[in-house]
Amino acid sequence: MISTLAVAGYRSLRELHVALGRLTVVTGANGAGKSSLYRSLRLLADCARGGVVSSLAREGGLPSVLWAGPGGSTSGAGGRRRGPVSVRVGYASDGFGYLADLGLPSGDPGQSAFTLDPEVKRELVWAGPVLRPAATLLQRHGPAVQVRGDSGGFEPLVTDLASFESALAVAGDPARTPEVLAVRDQVRSWRFYDTFRTDAAAPARTVQIGTRTLALADDGSDLAAALQTIAEIGVAEELDACVDDAFPGSRLQVVSEGGRFDLTLHQPGLLRPLRTAELSDGTLRYLLWVAALLSPRPGELVVCNEPETSLHPDLLPALARLITRAAARTQVVVVTHDARLADLLDAGAGTTTLRLEKQDGETRVAGAGLLDAPPWTWGNR
């Protein structure tokens, strides 16, 4: 389980270290930095997966996401930077930690047209909850990657890694780098859900070829197959309970015609079931969250961005109970601007709530002092 998330130099997150629990709720006013924290988690995952360039390209390139305010270790008098321009993201757990340091392209600007692509300047993987030199397992500086050898010293892994690639992508020898591969597999299992469409042309409303689906696609296109998989090899009783909790007396049924799956919802008082194309936006969205959170093979982290969207307020208690069920099986982070949902989740035992606020353009955790932040160090570039 991730115990610490750290971000520096990204949007409104000048320097933020937060502790994560089994269920973490991120809330706050509009513009407080909730989306920045969510995006930083995605950026961290994309760094480890080797997709950092395309991730930042969607946001306008590295210059568009850099911290723009004064103050901090990278600024001098008048807000002028006195250190390297960088975006840094990292996480720690009881087992391992990982960080990536991204910077502007170096060298002759005329050598490449990709002037907005970030460069991975540094990556580190370590054992334990805090970065220490003696616990470092992998270190990357520019194109050179080294791993801890059997003798205790560092040995070269590659010397010419491209600036847009992750060191985790080349650490593929289980005998030589088992811990690094464990970190890579951990991050690759993270799941992010924030783009569920419910309009008439939404992928979730389209009849699809049905195959066993252990994790719902991020666009919900395999909804019927994911729910059928939960019913057959997952937690069928919980599936039925979550549907009945939101829509009392209702039940789901997946219809297969020639191998193509469609979802139907049987509701009291109706002479026929409703197919996916007929469901209301709120009903469909709730069922998408059911499929996402009751996965029979949950990743090590599931991140839900504004799950309350399109839901009637009466469905929020059922949604909160669904999220709490999921948190009993995997680590969950919920980003929400809905105060009622945040309060419902906060009422649960063991919930960590991060109420964000912005002061002088900088996102902070409301009421938190310097001693409340978990221990963290970035090391030196």
Automatic annotation (TrEMBL):
Q: Does the keyword DNA damage apply?
A: yes
Q: Which UniProt keywords apply?
A: DNA damage, SOS response
Q: Which InterPro entries match?
A: ATPase_AAA_core, P-loop_NTPase, RecF-like
Keyword DNA damage belongs to the record = yes
Q: Which residues form the ATPase AAA-type core domain?
A: 23-61, 189-342
What protein name applies here?
A: ATPase
